[in-house]
Amino acid sequence: MKNLLFITAIIACSSIHSQEGNYASSIGVSSGYAEDGFGIMATYNYHLNRNRYAQLSVFAAIAEDRGTFTIPYNIFTVQPGYFFKILEQRNFKRYALNIGGGAIIGYEVINNGNSLLETGAVIDAKSQFIYGAYVGLEGELTLSNDFSLLVKANEYYHVNSDVGNFYPYAGIGLRYFLF
Asked: Sorted alphabetically, which Pfam families does this protein's record hold (predicted)?
């Protein structure tokens, strides 16, 4: 009798877990505008349910500051975050809008690590580790059971960046649902 109750409890728990648990995991790639240049982002989403997911992103920007002098720089970051759905088409679930945010940590490379410009001018900014936070907005348009079109916009706040504290990214790409 104990074994029967134990097996019934396991089945009930697994049924509850499957109703409330992970719906899917997905990966996505987007590319587009980053301040002063081009950015690309790869994401992994762990969907907690239909309306929430944890996200881990890797972001790279290739840009040039075109002030008095043209100074190339690159930004590479890793971003753990959390997103939740704020809008979804009711009947067919063809589109959705998600909002979220999280932390960032990364590295910025200014003028390929060189403190001198070709003109002989000295740059007082230096390549360094950066950290901060971000907020993001993601729009999804379902293309099939496995793919969706992804429109992404993030605003980063780098606490200690020599490039600038606020840094935008807007891109378009694809998201693939693993299971």
From this structure: TraO
- pLDDT digit string, tens, across residues 40-90: 999 999 999 989 999 999 999 999 988 888 889 999 999 999 999 999 887
Compute the distance between CA of residue 128 and CA of residue 162 in angstroms, rounded to an integer: 9
pTM attached to this predicted model: 0.82
Name the phi and psi angles at 62, rounded to 5: -120, 115
Q: Give the Cα separation of 137 and 126 in Å (integer).
A: 31
Of 63, 84, 81, which Cα lies nearest the Cα of 72?
A: 63
Q: CA dihedral defined by 27, 175, 87, 101, rounded to 10 degrees?
A: 40
pLDDT in tens, 124-145: 888 999 999 999 999 999 999 8
Q: Are 102 and 80 a contacting pair, CB within 8 Å?
A: yes
- Please tell me the number of Cα atoms within 13 Å of 5 on its side-chain side: 2
Q: What is the pLDDT of residue 91?
A: 72
Amino acid letter for position 165: N
Q: Are strands 37-49 and 25-34 parallel, antiparallel or unpaired?
A: antiparallel
Res 174 pLDDT > 60: yes
H helical segments located in 21-162: none
Top CATH class, 25-178? mainly beta
